[in-house]
Structure to design on (513 residues):
């Protein structure tokens, strides 16, 4: 099945099973804004809990805060967002649609990658186990041609983005004969810059109002509070501040479901270090963050680092952790060495000293910062994409199952009475009531037991318990395992010890030690 078709099925599955809904759907929706349903919010909360505990529980020098969405407008002047937080936009005169020029070019680069992968896939199928991919890449004429075009375009694009050179970006689009996906024409306008921040007014008209912004990132709330946290928490460098919160960007090209949205959530940690040690900590946090992702068991081959060729104005090192989505390797986390840019700027614009006094060296200095930043929604999407499976069973049926990491699953255990009579529902309810204090447990009595198993598979529930007539006699139940569909008879008294450790966030955190 084509990866594009797989992605469409995942999007459909998210809506059908209560994970993600289009926002304001009864009013025909609002573009690139989504709501999380009853299962989606549980999965999302579990992802956030895994991240939060991995930061503040496992590191005695990292604490958390929750800063306001509205902030003093000068903060965004100091950070550079007012003047430099722009995207290069281009319009098609025929369709009247607006696009990000850089995204159009990146999609063109991806098309060359897809052509190469198709050639490799055909060769792998033809040669089987004897296939040598490295040799094929180096010798196949079509692959070499596609790779050369791809590399030349990538180099040209990277150089154009340094400025950015808006005229060159348009020329690349023309030279590559990139067409508007709607009109099919190449009738493009010039490329121009567009600021991504949402603005609004604070205060009444009578008293005069101030222009404020919805924050485009959560990091600045950490920077302006870093000295408050350091002093009240008596923190010594190196130390970190973690935060989870909403951010807002007026994305013109919001696409690929929840991958790029206008309202999204970030998990960010800013780690403050002594100047001169930042690259050492940058490398350390690269390793720690990759370990965090791989602890989910999705396979090391599905992750890669992508070092930035064009560094942001505040950085001296930057890399992305990319995950293999159905639409290619895409960024889920950024790790940046931000130098002392942000703190220095806030000191300059506020007129207040926010230097750190080092009790060991007896000197004051502006700390350097290592940032780790994850989009919660992108992380959610990567989990869904990897977990979605369609399995062909021996009886010819197809099973749709979400093989979610048990610790992230919305519901850990479903308790199912075999029939809705003879005391079985009451016994099942008793099991639910005993276990719901330990992990998320649900009760389901509608439809046949087979249909209920399938329903729980589809929402990723790792364990199901069936209560039958024997249960009333010997206090045992049938425990079913989602991934293997294997079943075993166990005592009700054993359920907590069998399930709890496997479904707790602690089971993931232990892998990080």
């Amino acid at each position: 099945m084509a990866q594009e078709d797989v992605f469409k099925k995942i999007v459909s599955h998210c809506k059908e099973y209560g994970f993600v809904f289009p926002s304001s759907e009864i009013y025909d929706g609002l573009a690139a804004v989504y709501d999380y349903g009853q299962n989606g919010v549980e999965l999302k909360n579990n992802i956030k809990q895994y991240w939060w505990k991995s930061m503040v529980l496992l590191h005695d020098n990292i604490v958390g805060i929750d800063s306001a969405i509205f902030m003093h407008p000068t903060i965004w002047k100091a950070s550079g967002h007012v003047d430099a937080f722009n995207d290069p936009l281009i319009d098609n005169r025929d369709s009247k649609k607006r696009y990000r020029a850089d995204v159009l070019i990146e999609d063109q680069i991806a098309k060359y990658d897809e052509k190469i992968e198709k050639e490799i896939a055909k060769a792998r199928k033809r040669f089987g186990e004897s296939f040598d991919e490295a040799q094929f890449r180096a010798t196949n004429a079509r692959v070499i041609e596609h790779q050369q075009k791809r590399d030349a375009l990538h180099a040209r694009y990277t150089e154009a983005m340094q400025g950015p050179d808006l005229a060159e970006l348009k020329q690349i689009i023309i030279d590559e004969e990139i067409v508007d996906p709607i009109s099919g024409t190449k009738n493009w306008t010039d490329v121009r810059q567009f600021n991504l921040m949402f603005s609004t007014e604070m205060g009444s008209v009578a008293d005069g109002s101030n222009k404020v912004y919805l924050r485009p990132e959560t990091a600045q709330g950490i920077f302006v509070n870093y000295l408050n946290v350091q002093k009240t928490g008596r923190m010594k460098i190196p130390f970190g501040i973690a935060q989870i919160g909403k951010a807002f960007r007026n994305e013109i090209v919001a696409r690929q479901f929840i991958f790029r949205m206008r309202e999204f959530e970030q998990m960010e940690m800013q780690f403050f270090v002594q100047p001169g040690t930042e690259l050492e900590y940058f490398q350390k946090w690269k390793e720690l963050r990759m370990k965090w992702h791989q602890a989910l068991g999705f396979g090391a081959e599905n992750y890669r680092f992508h070092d930035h060729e064009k560094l942001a104005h505040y950085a001296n090192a930057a890399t992305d952790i990319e995950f293999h989505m159905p639409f290619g390797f895409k960024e889920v986390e950024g790790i940046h060495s931000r130098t002392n840019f942000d703190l220095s700027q806030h000191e300059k614009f506020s007129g207040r000293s926010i230097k750190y006094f080092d009790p060991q060296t007896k000197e004051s200095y502006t700390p350097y910062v290592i940032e780790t930043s994850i989009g919660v929604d992108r992380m959610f999407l990567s989990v869904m994409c990897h977990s979605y499976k369609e399995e062909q069973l021996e009886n010819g049926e197809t099973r749709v199952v979400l093989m979610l990491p048990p610790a992230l699953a919305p519901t850990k255990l479903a308790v199912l009475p075999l029939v809705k009579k003879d005391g079985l529902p009451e016994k099942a309810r008793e099991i639910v009531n005993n276990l719901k204090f330990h992990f998320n447990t649900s009760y389901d009595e509608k439809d046949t037991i087979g249909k209920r198993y399938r329903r729980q598979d589809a929402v990723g529930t790792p364990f199901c318990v069936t209560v039958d007539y024997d249960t009333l006699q010997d206090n045992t139940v049938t425990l079913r395992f989602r991934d293997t569909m294997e079943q075993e008879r166990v005592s009700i008294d054993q359920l907590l010890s069998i399930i709890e450790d496997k479904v707790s966030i602690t089971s993931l955190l232990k892998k990080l030690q």
